[in-house]
Amino acid sequence: MTAALGALLVPATAGAATKKTPTIRKVAPKTMNVGDTMTLTGNYFRRGKGKNSVLFKRDRGKQLFVKANVSTAKRLTVVIPKKLEKYMAIKNGQPAPTRFRLRVLSTRLGKAFTSVKLSPTIGPEKPKTGAGPGPAAPDGDCDGDGVLNGVDGDDDNDGLPDTLELQLKLDSCSADTDGDGVADGYEYASAVDLNNDDYRNPSISLPYPGKRAYPNPLDSTDANTDYDGDGLTMAQEYALWKYTIANGADASLQNLTYSDGLQFSIYRRDANGRRVPNLPAAGYTKHLAFLTAVAANGYSTVTLPDDPGNTYALLDFDRDHAVSPQEDQYLDWHGTGWNGTADGHLSDDERDEDGDGLSNWAEDNGWLTSDWWKGRYDRETAFRITYVGTSATDPDSDGDGLVDGADDQDHDNYPNVVEQDRYQITWATHGFDVPAASPPNSTPAYGRVNPFNPCLPYIYSRTCPTFIPFKGAWAPFDGPPYDPGGSDPNYLVLR
């Protein structure tokens, strides 16, 4: 009798459970698109495939039931259908991402829609992506500009016409076919610049080198390559180009403000049609902007810790109480090639695009990066703290209101522009080119600068530690700075 009674009670209990109202406790993901799979976690769902439906409703909009996939009592999944686009908000004539409140229908309909916090935002189907020559869907909008691909001549807004992208086997719906972080149009234009042969007569840019393209929008490994040899990688020049556009430059690919195919991207054509540099160092607007910024913050003149009795102009690097033309135009430190002779014009690496007093190269790869100092002066032990460098596309990298050139990475009261280069400090003693035979003791003590070591050039600066360890001490407490009998007597100064 007891067993029979138990058998009668089991179905009754199971039936009661399926009649409880379904609830939703979690929705994942919270942001998705048509075609994605949404997972709901909750209670009292019906087990099985197609046993539940999810009700979608946007505020002040119509409702849509969608069948769920396989469900358990506490978890169900549902694929967002294409027809949900008809229930989305409309922007510029197209479906736009919309928040939908949800309810589940099992044996019963959930009592209430999900709260705003729990409700997902669902967007229209993503446009076609991925490398390949196939045309984009004509009714899609790859670049989200409100113009359908069918009438948009540049679906991905990378500066290249769709017809050309398909010819080059690029993805006309992806601005960056190879996914290296550099847009197809920029790589294409840089390759054209690089392919120009200025020795020909007439000198004009050759077509894009399609068989073996460098820079190459189909090579995912070349973003960190420096094709034009100016010390800046393609990714760095691309970032500088984008920075100029954000600040009002022309976004056209016809004359890139920074090209990885040209060391001097600012150029003119001479009488023979050849490209020659055309950005004079004298009167460089970015340098003038830097001088204006430092004057506004009281840094036109400075008093340095090792010489508290004197005040010097910020750019009086050799401390002779006069700013020479060479010091005032310190950004122009090489000509066409690394010959150490200024030529009066600024190449892409010498330019100071963010106007902070530091060249693009110095901030990206050179004197304002700790790795440069470790590599160049490898016999000097680095300081115990690795200070952060600066950015070539942010004039105030640390956000303290002071431009990077007048700022002080190691907080030793020597501005970055003063500590960035040992050559600048020693010009008065050696001239621009330091003779190989110059005795090391002719180098002034303040010439041994390092923007990432607060004990250089002055061991009594406010941030040089008071207590020095017996072992593993940093420069200048790490032993003799040079070997008098060695082959590098000017180790303290040479780049």
Q: What does the secondary structure layout of this molecule look like, with pairings?
A:
Layout: H1 2-18, E1 23-28, E2 31-33, E3 37-43, E4 48-49, E5 53-57, E6 63-67, E7 70-71, E8 75-79, E9 90-91, E10 94-95, E11 98-99, E12 101-105, E13 121-123, H2 162-167, H3 184-194, H4 234-246, E14 267-269, E15 275-277, H5 285-296, E16 301-302, E17 312-313, H6 325-328, H7 360-364, H8 370-376, H9 416-419, H10 422-425, H11 427-430
Brief characterization of the structure:
With 495 residues, the protein is α+β, with helices and mostly antiparallel strands.
Profile the largest sheet: 3 strands, antiparallel
Query: How many helical elements?
Result: 11
SSE string: HEEEEEEEEEEEEEHHHEEHEEHHHHHH
The percent range for helix content is 10-25%
Q: What number is the mean pLDDT?
A: 86
Structural class by secondary-structure content: alpha+beta
Q: Note the beta-strand portion.
A: 5-15%
Distance between the termini: 99 Å
Low-confidence stretches: 1-18, 428-443, 482-489
Total number of β-strand segments? Answer: 17
Largest sheet, order of strands side by side? 1-3-8
- Shape descriptor reads globular
CA gyration radius, whole angstroms: 32 Å
Structure description:
It is built from eleven helices and 17 strands. Among the domains are: 17-123, Immunoglobulins (Immunoglobulin-like); 281-495, no CATH class. The strands form seven sheets. The protein has a three-stranded antiparallel sheet, with no helix packed on it. By secondary structure, it is an alpha+beta fold.
